[in-house]
Amino acid sequence: MPMRTPYFVVDETALRHNLEILKDVSERAGCKILLAQKAFSMFSVYPIIRQYLAGTTASGLYEARLGHEHFGGATHVFSPAYRPDEFEELLSYADDFVFNSPAQVRRFGPLAKAAGKSIGLRLNPECSTQEGHAIYDPCSPGSRLGTTLANFDEDILPMLDGLHFHTLCEQGSDALEVTVQAFEEKFGKYLHGMKWLNLGGGHHITRNGYDIDLLVRIVTHLRETYNVEVYLEPGEAVVLNAGFLVSSVLDVMHNGMGIAILDASAACHMPDVLEMPYRPPILNSGEANEKAHTYRLGGPTCLAGDVIGDYSFDQPLHIGDQVVFGDMALYTMVKTNTFNGMGLPSIVWRDASGKETLIKSFGYEDFKTRLS
Hints:
Elements: E1 7-11, H1 12-29, E2 32-36, H2 46-49, E3 55-58, H3 61-70, E4 74-78, H4 84-91, E5 96-99, H5 102-114, E6 118-122, E7 162-164, H6 173-191, E8 196-198, H7 212-226, E9 229-232, H8 236-239, E10 243-254, E11 258-262, H9 266-269, H10 272-275, E12 293-298, E13 307-313, E14 322-326, E15 346-350, E16 356-360, H11 364-368
Parallel strand pairs: 1-15, 2-3, 2-9, 3-4, 4-5, 5-6, 6-7, 7-8, 8-9, 11-12
Antiparallel strand pairs: 1-10, 10-11, 10-14, 12-13, 15-16
């Protein structure tokens, strides 16, 4: 029986391809690479990922617990501000705590140290290397993420085991090189005597054309200059191009151009399309007017802006045709929602032999129980 659309597919062969690259980087550079669960939290495949990576990073209590219980290895956590009523439980899951400000270090650092945890401070080198993605730029003016040099408090240095910065988004090692230079100029003197340095995420390591040799040189320089353990915490690079979202055409209409209504929603099933904005690739499609038949693809919600984009195809689209989106493992399943009462896509695993297995399906109760 055909799988009911929409559904996500995560492909083992593509996933392992990425993981092999990351493992090679960690071995060549002598660093540890962690899975950023904020991008991908499909814990059923954690047993595979932990064969290659050293642990996980979390943005709060639930991710930390998930990583601790289902991944193992090192569990790192960062929060812009920790909740006092959750911190004791967090101590039972996480090994390394990164704080966002000196005030957070003074408030929670002694508790973490008393529990035998390693602690660090997130810093803001005030070095923007992104273009067009202000929503994902931690170095943008007025950013709430990380401590600037002007707000750094040297009195907390004896408490710190490490330093952290995260400034990249889908970028190459050339952007990291620029950031590291700025970081060293402002904060390098504080690295001497630290145990570790975390370079955050946003490293597009598994993308074609990424300069891995430069990344290895950067990490090696930091390790040898400051005698620190270096961590990288990519999320996207782990599952880049390893997932798909299979959808179906529900209706075809015309309003100045061809319009196809899908059973997959940008607003509910791939929010980055609207937030970034981001144009997901579609198998066997082209840019608008590149191929013979152009359509604006929209979702089934009442939101006027629930539009995925304009694409062209060799053949006309008809009701029931499948439209398959690529690069759908990252920042999709973790961001899905049930706005308008939309059902959540099922999750399917495609193993190395090509066999597809339903991992999780969702229904009315998943919508209902979130509300009351």
